[in-house]
Structure formats: structure tokens, C-alpha cells
Amino acid sequence: MSIILILGGARxxxxxxxxxxxxxxxxxxxxxxxxxxLDDEMKARIEAHRRSRPSSWKTVEAASDIAxxxxxxxxxxxVVIIDCLTLLLSNLAGEDAGVEVWxxxxxxxxxxxxxxxxxxxxxxxxxxxxxxxxxxxAYTLGRGFRDVVGWANQMLARRAAEVYFMVAGIxxxxxxxxxA
Length: 180
Prior knowledge:
alpha/beta
């Protein structure tokens, strides 16, 4: 099992770098899109992302429970890109969720994803935002979101063989385990 985690801020080049890595790592790429088109601006972003991907890649759109959504397709993939973890975690919030419920949902989601990654030969590339470098959010929901994403990023970084931090389109290597 091999997870590559790509972190960075908005418009830092995370998705582009994930796609470049995927093209180097294998021919059969499964792209997992987690965004939901809830407004016109997000619809336009999703469409731009679709156009940026090779047509030979298989795409699965899943706003939650991605392990179940891709279980049948992952066996035919060399590389799986999950773009992005931050939106996936946001999708899990729900109107009824306090931070503890949200964190539990996130933990369960990531446990299922890591178990799937452990059971396959495919390389997993996970794109996520680094949301903890700015100001402390003024609202409880914002602070909860920052915390849930921060905890999830830490968990995946511990499990990942490689971790990159994108700055202005340049990948900085944070972790790279030897393949020996």
C-alpha cells in the first residue's frame, strides 16, 4: 500500500501536481472527485477540472463513502487520485454534526479508505488543503472545520509514504520513505 499526500493552499497547484504524478506512476488512473456542484461557481470549477483530465482516466464522483464507491473500480487501477479530502470532509459535516460527530464521521471515512488502500496494489494520491496556517476562524463551525481537516491530514501524513506541500506550484518534499 502506498499513499501520497499532497497538501497546500488554494490555487497552489495541488491537483495539477497530483495529475502529473499519476501520469508517471501508471496508465490506468481512477480519479475520485469529491466536490458537489451546489452553485454556479462550483459547477464551473468542476467542469474546468474535468477538462484538465485525460479522457482515458475513469472518473467516479463520490461526495462520501468513497471506499464503497470505488471498491469495484480500484482493482483495475494503477493509481487512484482523490481530489479532494477537504471537500470530502466538508461533505460529512451535516447540519446535525457537532465537531465530535464530524470528527467521528471523518475518522470512519478515512479508516475505510486506508483499509481499501491497504488491500490493493494501486497507489493512492490524496489531495488536501492545509487550512491551519491562517488566522483562527471567527466562528465555531470554521474552527471545527480547521480542526477536522488538520486531524485528518495528520492521520494521512503518518500513513503516507510520501507527503508534499505545494507553494506557488512548486512541490516541497515533507516526507519520502525509501522504497528499499
